[in-house]
Please model this.
Amino acid sequence: MASTLHLKSLELALDAVLALGTPKLSFMATTFTPNAGTDQYFSDISAEVASGTTAVTLASVVTTIDTGNARVELDTADPSLATITTTTNKYVIWVDTGVAATSPVLATIDIVEGTLSPVAGTLGITVNAEGHFALKAV
Amino acid sequence: MAVPVIESVSNAVYVQDVASLVITKPTGLTAGETMVAVIENASDDGFGVGTLSAPAGWTSVIATAVSQMQISVFTKTADSADVSASDFTFTNSDTVQSITVGSIFRLSTSPVVTSYLNGVDLGLGTDIAFADTQDTQFVDSLLLMVISGYKVTSGTNSLSTYVINGTNPTWTEQQDTQLTADRRHTFAIASAPLSDIRTITSFGATAASADFSFLGVLLVINESVGAQGTNATFAVSPLLSTQNGVAGTQGTSALLAVSPNLPTQSGKATSPTQWSNENKPSTVWTNTPKI
Model:
């Protein structure tokens, strides 16, 4: 009999973290290297936000249980920034509590296309159909 | 990324002592194209320059002044109203011994000013040199160099041989106009494509005459480029490690196998005489007569 986590509890746990504030997305500089152990709050990484960008308030934030894959997925509407000049290759999903030092960082996600360099253009992400990230139960 | 193209330019001549500078709409303007307006306003009354204002919807990029000269740059993405308009009016708050001159460039498709430099040369020489530092960010830039000049005493001037540091791109003069007599001003604009990324530390030109003070702006213009990315869903697998359960003090017992003491028993068994009935013969008694 295999050990397993339980999907509903995973979903509730993720929802609880998201409920701490406003879920947001920040594009990061190409030099940013995430540290899973020490990058806890937005204040830990804010200095490495890609220049010229601002945080995007995520819309249509939803956690979904995918029983077929035994995981809980986080999905949102496609985020974008208009009239941006920057260079980035990854983004961070975090929850804005209003105070950077208490705003938890959830995940750093690589951009599949690599480095994007808009010039006064729109910088956007077409979110994968399975969402930004998933917590697996097995 | 391609160097932004100057599709057309509309140059207005100097106006003096009036509030309005009207610049004709660049020919062929279509919605979505970028307009870059470069305006000089100056004053000869010794009380400084006036405030220059653009029509509604224009975005100020830079306004830099020295002494009696000011260069202002505005940009706007043309909309249908702009396409329908015949001209654009810029206003100068100073109408006393003031002069205003400017140009509007029509750029395709929708480039933007990504950076700029500005400087002052009060050396009164013919080699105009402005010092400022800016890193160009992208390849294939359009450079627009704007120089205004002023001389205290009468005289004329014209500019040529535009340069930046490093390998000099090929410059095209777009505007070179002067006010002479008692209004000794010159205004010139030149453009050049710059294919490489570099740190610009100086720009300038050559003046035909000395004794002018100069104010300069160098615009770096690049095509607007959007970028759309995607993500691969990052699935985190849990580590479900085996657990060794320990609840309190767990004693163990070994099965105590007790062997019984089974003394031998002496058994005595007797066998009873097995009697068997024999068939008793029957006696036939006969009665004897009694005597």
